[in-house]
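Input C-alpha cells:
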C-alpha cells in the first residue's frame, strides 16, 4: 500500500480514538506520523537484503512493539496507540508484497497478493524485463483493481471519520494530496520511461 493510504489509515485510527481520548494536536499528529513513517526506510534500501526496504527492521513488528512498551512505561495512551498505528502499517504491508515481519528470520512473510510464488522465487528474472526494476512493482500495483479500490475506500473513510470524530483536526488532511501526488508522478514517470 502507498504512503498516502497509510497516512489515511493513521487519520482514521486517530480520529476514531479521538472520540474516546480527546487528543491534543501533537498527540493526534504523533499517531498519524507513526502510521506512515516506516515507509521512509526506502532511503536505506541499499542496506537491505536484495535491496528490498521491506527486509529492514523498520518493516518488522519490532519497532511497533518497542513504541507500545515505551507508551506503557510512560503511561501515555497516545504513544501506545502510535505503536499500534505503526504495527497496523506492518500488518497491512503483509497483504500486498509481504514484509520481514519478525525481522530475525530474514524471510518475507504475508499473503503477498500482488506477486505469485513463481515471481517471488525468481524475482531477478522478472525485474530484468524492465528498464527500471521498480516498474515491475508499479505495474502490478496499479494494474490491480482491488488495490486501487482499497485506496479509494480508505480515502473516503479518512474523510468521513475525521469529520465525524475529529473535525477540529481536518486541516491535517491537506497533507494527503502531497503523498498521493508523489506516487502518481512516480507512476507516470516509470510508465513513460518503460514506453521510451
Amino acid at each position: 500500500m502507498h504512503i498516502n493510504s497509510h497516512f489515511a489509515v493513521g487519520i482514521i485510527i486517530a480520529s476514531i480514538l479521538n472520540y474516546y481520548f480527546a487528543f491534543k494536536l501533537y498527540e493526534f499528529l504523533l499517531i498519524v506520523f507513526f502510521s506512515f513513517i516506516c515507509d521512509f526506510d526506502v532511503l536505506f534500501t541499499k542496506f537491505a537484503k536484495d535491496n528490498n526496504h521491506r527486509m529492514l527492521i523498520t518493516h518488522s513488528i519490532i519497532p511497533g512493539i518497542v513504541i507500545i512498551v515505551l507508551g506503557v512505561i510512560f503511561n501515555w495512551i497516545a504513544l501506545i496507540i502510535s505503536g499500534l498505528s505503526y504495527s497496523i502499517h506492518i500488518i497491512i504491508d503483509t497483504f500486498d508484497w509481504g514484509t520481514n515481519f519478525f525481522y530475525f528470520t530474514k524471510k518475507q512473510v504475508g499473503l503477498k497478493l500482488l506477486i505469485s510464488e513463481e515471481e517471488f522465487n525468481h524475482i531477478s528474472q522478472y525485474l530484468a524485463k524492465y528498464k527500471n526494476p521498480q516498474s515491475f512493482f508499479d505495474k502490478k500495483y496499479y494494474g490491480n483493481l482491488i488495490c486501487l479500490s482499497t485506496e479509494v475506500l480508505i480515502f473516503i473513510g479518512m474523510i468521513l471519520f475525521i469529520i465525524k470524530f475529529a473535525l477540529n483536526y481536518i486541516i491535517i488532511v491537506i497533507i494527503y494530496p502531497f503523498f498521493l501526488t508523489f506516487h502518481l508522478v512516480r507512476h507516470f514517470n516509470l510508465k513513460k520511461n518503460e514506453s521510451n
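The chain is about 65% helix and 0% strand. The chain has one domain: 3-116+143-175.
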